[in-house]
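dumping this here before i forget
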Amino acid sequence: MSSDQKNLRSKMEHTLRALLQSPVEASAANDPSLLSTVLDPACKRYIQPASLLSKLGAPPDFFFDVPSYEAAIGSEMAVFSVKGVEVDNVCVDVEGRKGSAIAVFDQLLKDGREFRVGFSWHVEFSEDGERVVRILQYADAVGFVEFEGAVRELVAEEAGKESKE
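structure:
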């Protein structure tokens, strides 16, 4: 492997790890824009499996663009925080400009419930390896549905409190 390839490999791995750490940083700062610091502005985020999307009422080809993902997470940040992430099996393909990893997120709801939700991440990088241009996340479907259901419940409760005020 040439020094240029080693340098690119290092950049790509750094970019992937930064992406996986971003929910922790965004949560700590209460700033959903931090989710996108290493994303290309045109990046699309796909979540799979299709059965999960169906369970959540989304079409099988559903994706988030950068602004819609930030808005979706931003609307939920008042009721949960991401306390940590465990990253494993990081793999980078320099020639294909692709990377993958497994990440398990420790999430805490405002009401004290804790969730550990895992994802298998598959990303495509920009030519220089410093930006992610496409994300495919395979979620722990059971854990994600339980977590998202609890989040939606708390968001609805918060909305109900606000409407009474």
